[in-house]
Amino acid sequence: MPTRDEDLMRYVDGELPAREAKQLDKRLAAAASEDRDAVEDRARVAAMRQLGDVVRARYDLAADEAAPRLADMWSRLDRALASRDTEPVTLAARIAAWWHDFKSHVFVGAACAAAAALVVFLLMRRPDGQSEVVFVPTAPPELNSPPTKVMASEGEAESLEVEGTATVFRIPSEGDDEEAATTVIWITPDDSGSEGPI
Questions:
Q1: In which domain, by residue range, is 136 found?
Q2: Angstrom distance (rounded) from CA 130 to CA 133
Q3: Co-location of 120 and 136 in the same domain
Q4: Mean pLDDT, each 10-residue run in order, the chain (198 residues)
Q5: CA distance 188 to 162
Q6: Tally of CA atoms within 13 A in the half-sphere of 116 that contains its CB
Q7: How far is Cα 34 from Cα 66, in angstroms, rounded to an integer?
């Protein structure tokens, strides 16, 4: 029975365990011409060794061809590093180097900040032109009530239905302009314990 290819490759590469390698050595050395499997194994080992020699020769040739280019590259790199060490580094040069290395980070950060500002602006703006400010009282926990909403808008309220007590008062303007007066509707929820929006 012929030996498996992977065992022959390990034998040629010297990776086969010593005991198995000795057995294979004996088999290949004592192979008679009538033992076809042993003759075939010897031919495959010879072909594998020849292929290994060809591959090694090709890589040696490639390394020899690349050596002058690599030497030139290393010498240019050494010269560049030497000249960089001897040049004085000014503040402007440092800033320019930083900008060259991190300008994409700055642009991405600025674009993200602009997008966030736009989203906040669009979400805070109401379609009817009214603005809304929410004040959260800072009383002790047992006296806290739900957040109070202050709506700034033009218009008149004929009636107002609230759960709790509503107080309406006007704050006069500092000048003679009556339209500049501010009307405040103060809603205080009743103590019935009902949860929910005002």
A1: 131-188
A2: 10
A3: no
A4: 83 88 82 73 88 91 88 86 71 86 91 93 67 52 53 63 77 70 77 56
A5: 9
A6: 6
A7: 49
Which pLDDT score, from 0 to 100, does residue 108 have? 93
For residue 110, the number of C-alpha atoms closer than 13 Å in the C-beta half-sphere is 6
The torsion region of residue 78 among left (phi > 0), alpha (psi -120 to 50) and beta comes to alpha
End-to-end CA distance of the chain: 93
Return the SS3 of 194: coil
Does residue 159 fall inside a structural domain? yes
160 within domain boundaries: yes
Q: Which residues contact 169 (CB under 8 A, 6 or more apart)?
A: 183, 184, 186
Structure tokens of 85?
A: 């060490």
> What's the rounded Cα separation, in Å, for the pair 164 and 170?
20
For residue 97 the two structure tokens come to: 């180097």
Q: What is the bridge-based pairing of β-strands 131-135 and 148-152?
A: antiparallel
Tally of domains in the chain: 3
Q: What is the dihedral of CA 110, 114, 116, 120, to 10 degrees?
A: 150
Which stretch of DSSP H or E encloses residue 123?
Answer: helix 91-124
User: Which residue type does 192 have?
Assistant: S
Q: Considering the entire predicted model, what is its pTM?
A: 0.34
